[in-house]
Design goal:
single chain; Rossmann fold; 9 strands; binds S-adenosyl-L-homocysteine
Amino acid sequence: MAHRRLGATADTYAGYRARLVETLRAKGVRDLAVLKAFAETPRHRFVPAALRHRAYEDTALPIGDDQTISQPFTQASYLEALRLTGRERVLEIGTGSGYQTALLAALAAQVFSVERVKTLALAAREALRETGVTNVSVLLGDGTLGWSAYAPYDAILVAAGGPAVPPPLVEQLAAGGRLLMPVGAHGAQTLTLVERLGVEIRQTPLGDARFVPLVGEHGFDG
Ligand code: SAH
């Protein structure tokens, strides 16, 4: 489990953060490690300055470049579904603000995150550095190709919706690994769990999802 330095300014938001954790608990989030990650990760550092006063609402918020930081409850559900124990190497596609990356970093050993929009990748790197998260690497590139240099991954989280699960991601999933991705048409997808069980690849639909498009070689056209 990574240790983080919240810094003195974070205290201003501690009460709001505690309330967000209570909201998540009330909505059914049970995994204590996931709730702890939310309690310790300063979401206000990952939203644009003009929206900081809304940083701890359980809603998605715009982060620029037509992208959004996802709703905390959605992220909590995904993190629960990944069943992380703290020992995993995780691949994230769609760094966005870097907030979910920071949550993953609190729940796993190492996180590799790929973002295709340069301004977002740079801002996320900076926010992660300021927050004191050190077990994360952010790559600027097309995440539908994965990040082969550090494969295989015990867990893969795709934070954008695509027409199908990109084959390179399945190839980079470790034996026993779990991959979560919203699959389907623009704006209306099914959250899909992909498990690699030996040679068998099992795909399970988990529910409706609504994510920004996954744009790339094995995603939608840009
Ligand atoms: N989880 C993020 C929000 C992600 S929004 C957060 O907490 O802020 C989805 C992100 O996926 C966007 O930043 C978008 O630019 C990125 N994205 C879309 N297609 C991609 C691709 N092929 N490779 C990498 N990132 C991609």
